[in-house]
Amino acid sequence: MTRHERLTDPRDRHFSAALDFGREWLRAPLRVGAVAPSGSALARAMTRGLSDEDGPVLELGPGTGVFTAALLARGIPPERIAAIELGEHFAVALARRLPRVTVLQGDAARVGRLTPFGAGQAGSVVCGLPLLSMPPSIVLRILAGGFAALKPDGQFRLFTYGPKCPVPAPILDRVGIVARRAAFVPLNIPPASVYILKREVRAA
């Protein structure tokens, strides 16, 4: 039996993903920003309500691909998903595991330039990055670039282990977006909250 055949068992794929995550955490714990990969409950909460109509989807920091798999399970075609991953090991492993998904190794702060869908064409951004551990200037670049890549009514989804939205209010105001807490996932390790960010609708 080949390694590829062994990994067709979901338990083996999960074990392999956990090993990949552990190796990457040892290489760059601050960049990874968590001690365990996101769980299936958080992945379901992050993608709840999304469908092909909400694509194309840009995924920032896919890591082991837990959210990517959840997007595919929601019926979003792999050709309408582009994942931007800074870590070479994560990027190579994800591209090998999901060859029809566009995987780009690069900095999510350059999402506006890296998106393969063109400016203002993505329907959703799903962000798995540890924004709480990033400098505000980097968070601003990620948010500004993400919304530049989104359609006018597009949405930016993220999660946090903290008690409130990880994007500081001055950055929300500067980009012109509002944040809404959409879900709390107590079964994740650690427990997490999901936020949906959208452009602020200003009165005429």
From TrEMBL:
Keywords: Methyltransferase, S-adenosyl-L-methionine, Transferase. It holds the Pfam family Methyltransf_25. Residues 41-176 form the Ribosomal RNA adenine methylase transferase N-terminal domain. GO terms for biological process: methylation. GO terms for molecular function: methyltransferase activity. It comes from the Bacteria. SMART domains: rADc. This is Methyltransferase domain-containing protein. It comes from Paracoccus marinaquae. The lineage of its organism: Bacteria, Pseudomonadati, Pseudomonadota, Alphaproteobacteria, Rhodobacterales.
